[in-house]
Amino acid sequence: MVISARSEQWSFGNVDTLINMSRTEVSRMKPPLVPFATLIGRELRNEKVEKPFVKFGQAALAKKGEDYFLIKPDCERVPGNPATSFSVFAIFDGHNGISAAIFAKENLLANILSAIPQGANREEWLQALPRALVAGFVKTDIEFQQKGETSGTTVTFVVIDGWTVTVASVGDSRCILDTQGGIVSLLTVDHRLEENVEERERVTASGGEVGRLNVFGGNEVGPLRCWPGGLCLSRSIGDTDVGEFIVPIPHVKQVKLSNAGGRLIIASDGIWDTLSSDVAAKSCRGLPADLAAKLVVKEALRSRGLKDDTTCLVVDIIPSDMPVLPSTPMKKQNVLSSLFFGKRTLNSTNKTTSKLSAVGVVEELFEEGSAILAERLGKDFPMDTSSGIFKCAVCQVDQPPAEGLTLNSGPFFSPASKPWEGPFLCTNCRKKKDAMEGKRTSKPTVIT
C-alpha cells in the first residue's frame, strides 16, 4: 500500500496500535532458535538450502510528487520457468519535474535485461548483471535525453536472485542491509557533491564547475552544486540541461547472504536526510515488512516533518522455514566483523577466503563505482563476429563495425592515456562515452 498525503490521511496512532499488535504476534510465531554452530556446520557441509521467501512493504508521503517506485517480485530469467524467478525493487527520486523518473521506471529494467547474453545459466547471469546494469543505466539516459526534456532522477535499483542481492545506484537514494547480529551495511554510495570528494574532482576534471549558490552581495549559500545547472548530485539519469559530466554510470555492489537472511531498506533522501542507517534499521526490527516501511517513514517525519517526498521500501529475504525475520539485538560490529564478513571477487580462486565467506552473514561478490565507461564494460564483453555485424554494448543495436568503435580500434584514449580496449560501441554511444569523460564540449539541449 502506498500512502499519499494528498489522497489519504495517515494516523500515526493507528500505526502505533498495529505495530504493537504485530510485535506481539511476531513473538508468538518465532521458530526455535538454531545454534550458531549448527548453522556453520550446515554451511560447511554444503547442505542444499531452499530458495528464500521475499516479503516486502512500502510506504510513502508526497510533498512534491516526484518520487516513484518499482516493485516486480515475479520476474523470470527464462520466461515461463518459475524456477528462474528473481525480484526487482527500485526507487526513482525525480527533480525538476517527473518525466525522467517515470521514463526510468518504465524502461530501465528492460534495458538492463537486454544487455545480458541470452541462454546464460544462473551463475553466468549473476556475473553478467553488474555490467548489464551499467549498460542499462547509460542506455536509459541516452534514450531519455533524446526526448529533449530537462528533468532528472536518482535511481536505486535492487535485484534479488535467491540469496544474492545486486544494487545499482546513482544519486542520493540509498539501500541498506540489516543482517542477523544487528550489523547494518550500506550497499550504495551517495553521489552528493557536498560529501563526495572523488566526485567533485571527477566533475571538475571533466569540464564542470563546483561551487555554492551566490546571492546578492557575493555571499555563498547552500550545498555544493555543479554548474551549469546548479545540481547537487554528480550522477543521475536525465538532466539534459546540466552537462554530460553528470553521468548515469551507477555504483554497483553485489553480495550474497547466508541462509539466515536479511532485510533491505531502500529509501529516497527524504528518509536519509533525517535518519542514519543504524537508526532506520533499528527502529523497525521485529516487524513485518509492510509495517516496518510505515514505521521508518514515521520516524523520519517525527523530527523534521514533511520537507520532501519520503518513500521507503522494506524487503525481507527470509529462510523458507521461517514466517518472518527474527529480531536480534544490536551487537558491536568490531567484535563480530571477523566472523560475519567475507569477501571475494567474481573470479576468486582463494580457497581460504571462500571457506570463510561460506559461513559469513554477508559475502561480497562484486563492487565497482568508477565513472569511466571503459572500466565498467570491461575487455571481454561478448560479441558475435561470425556475421560481420556487431552489437553495441550499450544500446544493443546491431551495426557494421565501421560505424562504431571495436576492440583495440583507432586513436581513442582513456583519461589514463591507454588505448580503448572495450567492446564495440555505436557512433552515438561512443559520443556519449567521450562526453562523459570530458573529451568534447558538451552542448546540452535546453527547452525554452
From TrEMBL:
InterPro entries: PP2C (IPR015655), PPM-type-like_dom_sf (IPR036457), PPM-type_phosphatase-like_dom (IPR001932). Residues 48-317 form the PPM-type phosphatase domain. Gene3D superfamilies: PPM-type phosphatase domain. SMART domains: PP2C_SIG, PP2Cc. Transmembrane segments: none annotated. Pfam families: PP2C (PF00481). SUPFAM superfamilies: PP2C-like. This is PPM-type phosphatase domain-containing protein. It comes from Hibiscus sabdariffa. The lineage of its organism: Eukaryota, Viridiplantae, Streptophyta, Embryophyta, Tracheophyta.
